[in-house]
Amino acid sequence: MFFLDSEVCVKPLPPSDSGRPMASEATPYGISSETYTIYDKYFSTAHQWIPILSRKLTRRNLLESKSTVNDPSQLLLMCMKLVSDPLSPEASARADRTYMKVLQSLLEAENAYLPCLQLLQSIILISVYEIGHAIYPAAYLRVGHASRLCIMMGLHDRRNAPQLFKSTFTWTAREEERRAWWAVFCLDRIINQGISGLSLAAPELSPGELLPCSERSWDEGGVGFNEPLFAASFSNNTSLGSFANVCQAAHVLGRVLRHRDELHSTNVSLDFRIAEAKQLRNILVSLSSHLSDVYREGGDEPFEGSGSLSLALCLSALLILYEIYACNEKYSADHGRSSEEATMQREAMKGIFDTVRCTWQLARQLLGSIHQAGGSELESLSPFLCHCLYTAAGECEWLLLEQEDPSAGVWLRDIVKLLEVMCERWRVTGVYLSEIYKWPGYNSLVK
């Protein structure tokens, strides 16, 4: 009825009764040991860098769910298992049994239910698995699917968009919705880093958009505080959680991607483009410096969870921006040339060097953290770090070939070492490494 008359639809359609029993899952009397194992592992691994689920609501939903394959809670449970269990070395990510089962259950759930939050959360986690194991174009299409669901449910604009759900929610339920929308927004920007010219699936944020609360409040199940994304002034008491920092970084990354994709537009003047590039650079430099300071001062555990990811997204955005202007032949000159281009080119060249050095420092800290934890820290590393590392490695290769800079060789070795360590967990790193291994500068280092 939502699609025919959205004003009268207040709840999703009831599930069909055609589901098949699901062995050894949740029972009416409590969570089974197998289900609790999945629950516990997910919240100690993937949840650290994509904290979209409430512990207490997830547990409650599992207790109350029906033991059928197409029940949204059971689908979400399988997706939690999918993203938290590493693949065996010989397994194929595309043909993994859990992945195949999840896709089949997703199809059944979509046929039996109107979209609900748990269905959206499941699709988010499936897209995380597909991005992390380089299952394309499925990953790209899945993020678009999630974005359309958010728009249909009205999560992208609570004030003006039609809302699929009209009932009143608790703060925790509303925060879960907010985090789901932000996750889709971030995934959309992350997946478009390496490919230009394609439209972003998730719309721009509304002026009143609120950021997720701090992770401490979220994980403890209490009521947290939500800072606005767009604010007229700043307070010294403002303290954002690590996922909120990721959201901020993804927002600026999205602006850089739009700037990149409008390079050949004849509707944008050169002066405006240069001014916007400088503004974006200043924002990113300030934000990356702030994030580095936060973790260096001990405001959060150093580079755990989403902490390293927010910094990596800032550094990735800077490299994308600098790559445009380091070679000023790449963009349209239909409006003529300007001396500002040469100034921006000099700043971009210096910026590439500084940003690659920062990326190398991040890689060194992550390697140290993994070594200190005996490898267990690897489970909490996000695959979304990989594009930043790969882009920085490409700049190191360029510095080796163009300037024969010895520092670049050290940086490239360490960045590749981190990618090789992460390859044990995420197959996308293997795709990046297979390309790096072809580079002449890198091969001159390892001979």
Q: What is the structural class?
A: mainly alpha
Helicity, as a percent range: 55-70%
Strand content: under 5%
| Radius of gyration of CA atoms, rounded to a whole number | 23 Å
Largest sheet: none
Q: Please, how many helices?
A: 16
Mean pLDDT: 85
Number of strands: 0
The rounded distance between the terminal residues' Cα atoms is 66 Å
Q: Stretches where pLDDT falls below 50 for ≥5 residues? A: 12-29, 299-303
Silhouette: globular
The H-and-E topology, N to C, reads as HHHHHHHHHHHHHHHH
How are the secondary structure elements laid out?
Blueprint lengths: L32 H12 L10 H10 L7 H13 L12 H16 L4 H16 L5 H16 L17 H21 L23 H6 L21 H20 L8 H27 L10 H20 L12 H34 L13 H18 L2 H17 L5 H9 L3 H7 L1
Q: Brief overview, please?
A:
By secondary structure, the chain is an all-alpha fold. It has 16 helices and no strands. α10 runs antiparallel to α11.
